[in-house]
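Appendix C reproduces, verbatim, an entry submitted by the partner laboratory led by Prof. M.T., so that reviewers can inspect both the input and the predicted structure.
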Amino acid sequence: MTNSVAQLKTELSEELENILEYWINFSVDEKNGGFVGQRDHYNKEIQGAPKGIILNTRILWTFSAVANHKTEKSAVLRSLADRAYGYLKKAFQDDIFGGVFWELDAGGNPINRRKQIYAQAFAIYALSEYYILSEDKDAKEWALELFGMVEKYAREREFNGYLEAFQEDWSPIEDMRLSEKDKNSAKTMNTHLHVLEAYTTLYKIIKADAVKEALDNLIELFLEKFYESKNQHFQLFFDNRWNREGNIVSYGHDIEAIWLMIEAAKTSGNKELIYRAEGIAVPVAETFLKEGYVSGKGVVNEKDLDSGEIDTDRHWWPQAEALVGLDYALKISGEKKFRDAILDIWKFTRENIIDHENGEWFFRVNDINQPYVQEDKLGMWKCPYHNSRACMVLTK
């Protein structure tokens, strides 16, 4: 059992190596180039599976970030980061209209050319991290080009914020949903959160006034539009004029947002925004502990505040983000309850979320800790980013 912060760091360092070993051994597509599109719960490769931009940008980010995290950069990690960057540029880049495609077939041909802003953000995030590793000027220039396109087409100047999605040529699109489970809303917390993290890393490599302005504006949006002080949650879905649509809260997004906001403000250097971001971190984390965390049973998925209905499934990524967000609350407050919850969530994750037989983490388990066998181990949304990042942040 993990019973100390020192032991936690040791175990997270070991788990980071386990995660890397999985992705090094099972993600490379030797037949078609790049990386395979899907492996099922039992780790069987699904032949002919399409390849998604989210998986591929997160692979690029992960191999780059872990190489940057390590004292001695691994040649294997660098070669895989180079492979991911090369495939992204070759197959996902739209040479006609700019931006990155949403989905390719197994052979690398575009089958969904829509411009989802969430995807453009992950490309910026990954390219910026890859530039830190490689110092490849083309990667830096591409990241800045994508930033320019997002600002030009997606930033909504009348009411502020970023629109969700566009057609291949950046013209309006009727169905803007990121996935089938999402509302067809013009503006969402999820997409803004990942634009925020992308611009944070972009500003680290390009100290441009336009990037800083956009980054500060995003932090303000989180403080003024998404955050609700009356219940200490971040709202998820809005129309173009910032009218809330639905009343569902995602516990993983709540706890992830507080630390990403703090990092964004620190990167910007804006003291007022640092103060305001840190000011809401502990209240949000306390509400998270009361509502989203169950001692010995990890973090539940989400809750409809209107009906009171709770999705009690334990997805892999909120467990990882909880470790980081609660650590930020601990450092701000010094309160023991946050440390205790971190150790307990990690214990739950080790025992129930990590797949000790086939490697990596289960996508989700039910409220009696049984994994959903219909979910992927590797897929469009099952990537090495949340869990590897948590391991890195907590072992710095």
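Residues 5-393 form a domain with the Glycosyltransferase fold (CATH 1.50.10.10). Additional entries are available on request from the coordinating office.
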